[in-house]
Structure prediction request, 726 residues.
Amino acid sequence: MLLLIASEAFFFMALIIAYVYYRNFTNATDTVAKNLDVVKTGIFTLFLIASSFTLIFSKKALLNEKYVLYKILMATTILFGIVFIIGQVNEYMGLYKKQITLSQDIFGSSFFTLTGFHGLHVILGIIALSILFGISFGKLKIVSISAIQGVDIYWHFVDVVWLFVFYFVYINPLL
Amino acid sequence: MSLYIKMPEENEPLPSLKRARGKLLWISSVDHKQLGIMYLWLALFFFIIGGLQAMIIRAQLSWPENHLVSPEMYSQIFTMHGTTMIFLVLMPALIGLGTYLIPLMIGANDMAFPRLNAFSFWMTCMGGVLLYFSFLAGGGPKAGWFNYPPLSEMNYTSTAGVDYYLVGLILTGIGSIGAALNFVTTVLCMRSPEMKLNMLPLFVWMMFVNAFLMLAAFPLLNSGLFLNLLDRQFDAHFFIPSSGGSALLWQHFFWAFGHPEVYILALPAFGIISEVIPVFSRRPIFGYKFVAASTVAIALLSYSVWAHHMFTVGLSNAVNSFFAISSMLIGIPTGLKVINWIGTMYKGSIRLTIPMFFAIAFLIDFTLGGLSGISFAIVPIDWQLTDTYYLVAHIHYVFLGGSLFGIFAGIYYWFPKISGRKLSKRLGKWHFWLFVIGFNLTFFLQHILGMIGMPRRIYTYPDLPYWKVLNLFSSIGAFFMFTGMAVFFWNIYTTLKKPRTVTSNPWNAWTLEWAVPSPPNLKNFVEIPPVHSRRPLWDLDHPDKPDKRLN
Prediction:
């Protein structure tokens, strides 16, 4: 799993490099950055970070065999993930209303590709978490440790990638 | 003291063909041996297609002002020839040998993730099918195997070929990442308990290092491919300079993948050679540690050389000199390996079997390819010779003289283990001489063609001095190779018809895969021989003078 993550890291690195390259090394002016709502996205970012913490605690609860606590924390994690996705959809809708699309210009292309691929990974993570959550209701009371460790590491990775994306796409243009 | 260690019993047998019936059930197999064989058949199948494409190219170029195929067809054929040979022949052949041999060589019963293994194979296979489907969907890709934008963008190439190229390569890329994940985990977790990392056979070691290269290189390619696909299908602007994008960025992405890819294809071949040469020189490898360490050096350096493919795009002089120096540096660990292989052969009692023939041809031709590579690292020479036939000659010396000769050596060497039958030595010699003479005839002359100015990828050419005769002889060489390959296929066909006669260790080799019957049973090892050195079977056969104990 760690190796897969390392491999994924290279994928996102390439996408982020593309974005930074266009902004800093070409003459084009960034058309997307000034239309982004940093505060709102910042709040949704907090949700994603919080979900990482709830996942850590839920894993701890599972290891200590506190199943009810584990289920509650797991549900919170999934919920926070969904909130984040709703935030992103909201952002996309806003941008579309301002006529900013994938095909509008180079920054539209790289913004939607980068955040889109990240969103895809978050959705995948939510699905994996939901499976773990669903299993815990069935006859299989204990989810195998390696499964939750894999999903755990994946979720943190998605979280960290978002921090980088948030920094480069949202914060950096303001500086 | 017991000589053997008991393997723990598997609780649940893996699903396999051996207990089911019929060839169709191969598609559900998760056994690493069957998947390895399927990889090899896949490579062989696409090798025939890619080889026929090469024959068409050579036929078209064999005399001036020739119009055998149309220019559009010609562009599609040379694009597909390059793409097929790299992604659908060399990659599957090397991954296939790795899939078949790594568990056997480290004393494991299967890969770490058998299902992922099957997934990787079928992704690669489907990627290939999709790539060739383009011919039914309005024409193959025709922007060259490295698919430079803006030529590969919608407004210059409007047929669907490039889209199939992009999707097909994304799939094979995902397959390769899966295989690499599997290799690393297998080597780390599934080794015989006594085998330490410094006792790995060199082939396994090089596949192991190689897997890290794949894990880092293919995501870069895939992201580039995705961006290009978005450009073509959703009107994005990543690589279109006229609307703010950058065509150069594709080149950076592609070659940051592409140069490690050269070593991804070369390192396993080095590994095969490092197994073949010691066995047939009857001496342990000279300087194991240097060979192993130089592999890591090559892997690391290969990430700092990619811009030598881009000397002509107008990067600054400082950037050019950095990449020139790092490209020359990478010659050092590679040269070190060549010296180690020669050192192994020195004073050995060499047995001239077919694998050894190919290993020696590899040493000579790969070194030639390496030397022409060094000449490309010198920026002014690169400016003069890039995009000429000198470059075509160089890439073929590296990929055929390097990777393919390594694969041939590996196939002749491990064929008895895989099938239980030895390939005919008489036919093998015909194959070897026809192919090696043809290869050198075809591609050595192309060095000269490049130096007198013939650009690559041209459809046809006027009757300039020497061009006609050099091209004609080059095409004759290609025909020699074609005949040699026909002999090879005939050899495989007739050998597979014969009954199984080979004992478990026909070459008197020393690594663990030769401790099991040929072909191995579904469960590789009932018991693993004790491993105390790099040559466990030597220690078993010669208890009086074993190798130095390493654990």
